[in-house]
Write a structure and sequence with these properties.
Layout: E1 12-16, E2 21-25, H1 39-42, E3 44-48, E4 55-60, E5 67-75, E6 86-92, E7 95-96, E8 102-104, E9 109-116, E10 121-128, E11 140-146, E12 165-167, E13 177-181, E14 188-189, E15 203-205, E16 210-213, E17 227-229, E18 235-236, H2 242-249, E19 254-257, E20 260-261, H3 267-301, H4 311-325, H5 365-368, E21 376-378, H6 380-386, E22 393-396, E23 400-406, E24 412-418, H7 426-436, E25 447-453, E26 456-462, H8 469-474, H9 482-502, E27 507-508, E28 517-519, E29 525-527, E30 534-535, E31 541-542, H10 554-559, E32 561-562, H11 564-580, E33 585-588, E34 591-594, H12 595-603, H13 622-635, H14 645-664, E35 675-679, E36 684-686, E37 689-691
Parallel strand pairs: 4-37, 11-35, 13-15, 14-16, 15-17, 16-18, 17-19, 21-25
Antiparallel strand pairs: 1-35, 2-3, 4-10, 5-9, 5-11, 6-7, 6-8, 6-10, 12-13, 19-20, 22-23, 23-24, 24-26, 25-26, 27-30, 28-29, 31-32, 33-34, 36-37
Pfam families: LRR_8 (PF13855), Malectin_like (PF12819), PK_Tyr_Ser-Thr (PF07714)
Subcellular location: Cell membrane
EC number: 2.7.11.1
């Protein structure tokens, strides 16, 4: 099975034979011509066992729409008499593929290629012409399926996920947007009627913008809409189109104006309000008079700041909220102020009473700052509410402790609260939030919002249900097979490539480690913890050294010069963790040793099995493991020799394809049979037949690809 470096394109070649064939071979090296076919492959061939027989190769497709890209390789290395002629026609399902026959000269290399579709069974046959004196011969064949692109899941220019947009996942149909969150996105003007075209939309959040005018009637077309938030748009009309009014009245739609569901209530509720409002007014007058009396007394003593917020003001506020929660605003929840936490903003959806901080009547500068980054700004009271008073800690990092929470509509989140020991200031925090708001990629943990409430600072991220990679590869409670390990490395590398290559200016993570790679319920990998992320618009950035021991780039540590290659080093250490399931710093009788040294010593003796996680039990493709281990060591080499993240993504994808191919071909016969079949992923020969699935085609040097042909790797 020649692979890289014997095959420059790292194709996997599998031996293939038939009882009606005879295997022949030569020791003479053969040039692979334009397709770079390894000499080891072309040095073997098959001819019919009987002179008058043909060479037949068959494969099947799951349906007639599957297209096949077929490449045939020939080299006649048999020494024959001068008058001998090897000439044959190529048929497929009884029809000539090429008008002219193949005529082979001794020791020359030939190739042909074609595309076929429209059948479920294919029979390729090589038959000698009437004037031929020698039987047909074939050295190698490559058969690929052409991946159809019937629809594009995203715009051609945007292959990245976008926070705030949720789509239906149904590969039998075109994806539809089901949820759209454009809150705090600095939108101006009227609501466009095009929203009515999003026919599968269930949730629409346009809150905290500067929208004005009427609500368009096209929203009546959103038959699946169940939630509409229009709060925080002072110039927007509160009159709903008739269709939305009916849906809301029937209880099928929640509409929010100014932080509360709109006032389309029944007559019964209206009469209840008519009774409650006078009672509330009278109570306010009585309590207000008492409040004024005590206020004047305290003012005379000039000691207002020494006392917490008066309890009667809290009582007034809570009674007001309770009355209206039971009538008009049953969906609005509050978190009553306490002596320990007196947030400036209390209540849900950002619309409620302002309560002064009893410890400091001067408004903090942080609360005066407002940034339009398209992310929700939470009050600290809201964070307490959604985390159940921070009762479920799930981790701790350089920024502070992390708590699990749940938003109003059930989405789980991770809340990172800045610790008192954190050195990050207000302006630095604002800069970090602004950077994070620009990051949108499927393999990066999404920032949902932030909190800047007095001295309380926090970040709110999406919650990753399966924890972090470190727990999976080092803990005893979980096990990851090699295929999943390579996939996690590949997905994480894509996230880092986005930071390095697609952000403007480029961003450097600075703290890549296995505990900062989080896993979703499907074990999809996402890079997290951007608290230390830095811009890198130049060659390098001179900065205070930060990072985690064992993952920290020695060059960066010694020079304080931060580059993208610093992240590459850290990711190389993570890949070694994935291969070995060992920590970056190993403790032994001779003292500590870095994981890179441990791996280098053993690989220099060719003993890769000695470094692998024994829990994998030999269930892996050795070439795939070698590729990842070799790549990891290159990443931890001198900075000038380290690959960039784009090259790392490419290499990891090839390693993943090797492992997937190996899983499908584990029962194939040994390599001493003459005929080889080249393929990339899912096709594998069984009993002389090629059973096909969809897989990506490896681009081959010099091959003209059709416009609708295979997807390049």
């Amino acid at each position: 099975m020649p692979l890289y470096p014997q095959d420059a394109h790292d194709r996997l070649w599998i031996s293939w034979t038939s009882k009606s064939w005879t295997a022949i071979s030569t020791d003479t090296s053969i040039d692979g011509f334009k397709y770079d076919v390894p000499s080891l492959v072309l040095q073997t061939a098959a001819i019919p066992s009987t002179t008058n027989d043909s060479i037949d190769i068959t494969w099947s497709a799951s349906d007639q729409s599957t297209s096949f890209y077929v490449v045939l390789h020939f080299c006649d290395f048999q020494a024959v008499r001068n008058n001998s002629l090897r000439e044959f026609d190529i048929y497929e399902n009884g029809n000539l593929v090429f008008k002219d026959p193949m005529k082979l000269d001794y020791s020359d290399t030939y190739y042909v290629w074609y595309i076929r579709t429209g059948h479920t069974n294919y029979n390729l046959s090589l038959k000698s012409t009437t004037r031929a004196t020698l039987p047909p011969i074939i050295n190698a064949i490559e058969v690929y399926t052409v991946l159809p692109v019937t629809w594009l899941p995203t715009d051609n220019g945007d292959g990245l996920g976008w926070a705030g947009v949720n789509c239906s996942i149904d590969y039998s149909n075109i994806p539809r947007i089901t949820s759209l969150n454009l809150s705090a996105s600095a939108l101006n003007g009227t609501i466009i009627s095009d929203f009515g075209s999003l026919i599968a939309l269930e949730r629409l959040d346009l809150s905290r913008n500067n929208l004005s005018g009427n609500i368009p009637g096209s929203l009546d077309q959103l038959v699946s809409l169940t939630y509409l938030n229009l709060s925080g748009n002072s110039g927007l009309s509160k009159i709903l189109p008739s269709g939305l009014q009916k849906k809301e009245k029937d209880g099928h739609l929640t509409v929010i104006f100014d932080g509360s569901p709109s006032n389309n209530v029944t007559k019964k509720k209206s009469s209840k309000v008519a009774i409650i409002v006078p009672v509330v007014i009278v109570m306010f007058l009585i309590v207000g008079a008492v409040a004024l009396y005590f206020w004047f007394r305290k003012k005379k003593k000039s000691c207002l700041k020494k006392f917490p917020t008066p309890s009667y003001l809290r009582l007034t506020f809570i009674m007001y909220k309770c009355f209206f929660n039971n009538s008009l605003c049953s969906d609005t929840r509050i978190n009553p102020p306490t002596d320990q936490v007196s947030p400036r903003y209390v209540g849900a959806q950002g619309s409620s009473m302002v309560v002064d901080n009893p410890k400091d009547n001067v408004v903090p500068e942080a609360d005066k700052k407002e940034i339009n980054i398209g992310k929700k700004r939470f009050s600290f009271a809201e964070l307490k509410l959604l985390t159940n008073n921070f009762d479920d800690p799930i981790g701790i990092g350089g920024f502070g402790e992390v708590f699990k929470g749940r938003l109003e509509f059930g989405d789980e989140v991770a809340v990172k609260v800045r610790s008192e020991s954190s050195s990050q200031g207000i302006q630095q925090f604002l800069n970090e939030v602004e950077k994070l708001s620009r990051v949108h990629h499927k393999n990066l943990v999404s920032l949902i919002g932030y909190c800047m409430d007095g001295n309380q600072i926090a970040l709110v991220y999406e919650y990753m249900q399966k924890g972090n990679l470190q727990d999976w590869i080092r803990g005893s409670a979980h096990f990851l097979p090699w295929k999943q390990r390579v996939r996690i490395a590949y997905e994480s590398a894509q996230g880092l490539e986005y930071l390095h290559k697609m952000c403007n200016p480029p961003l450097i993570h600075r703290d890549i480690k296995s505990s900062n790679i989080l896993l979703s319920t499907t074990l999809e990998a996402k890079v997290s913890d951007f608290g230390l992320v830095r811009d890198c618009s130049g060659t390098y950035v001179s900065t205070k050294i930060v990072g985690t021991p064992g993952y920290l780039d020695p060059y960066y540590a010694s020079t304080s010069q931060l580059t993208e290659k610093s992240d590459v080093y850290s990711f190389g250490v993570v890949m070694l963790e994935i291969v070995t399931s060992k920590s970056p710093i190993l403790q032994g009788p001779q003292g500590s040793q870095h994981l890179t040294q441990f791996v280098q010593q053993r690989l220099s003796r060719g003993k890769i099995e000695s470094i692998l996680d024994p829990n994998m039990g030999g269930q892996y493709n050795l070439n795939s493991v070698w590729k990842v281990a070799d790549l990891a060591l290159k990443c931890t080499d001198h900075p000038a020799k380290r690959p960039d993240m784009t090259a790392i993504v490419t290499q990891l994808k090839e390693a993943l394809n090797l492992e997937m191919s190996s899983m499908e071909t584990s029962s194939v016969a040994s390599e001493d049979i003459s005929q080889y079949v080249g393929y990339s992923r899912d096709d594998f020969p069984i009993g002389g037949e090629l059973h096909s699935g969809n897989f990506e085609m490896t681009p081959i040097k010099g091959m003209p690809l059709p416009d609708y042909g295979p997807v390049a790797r």
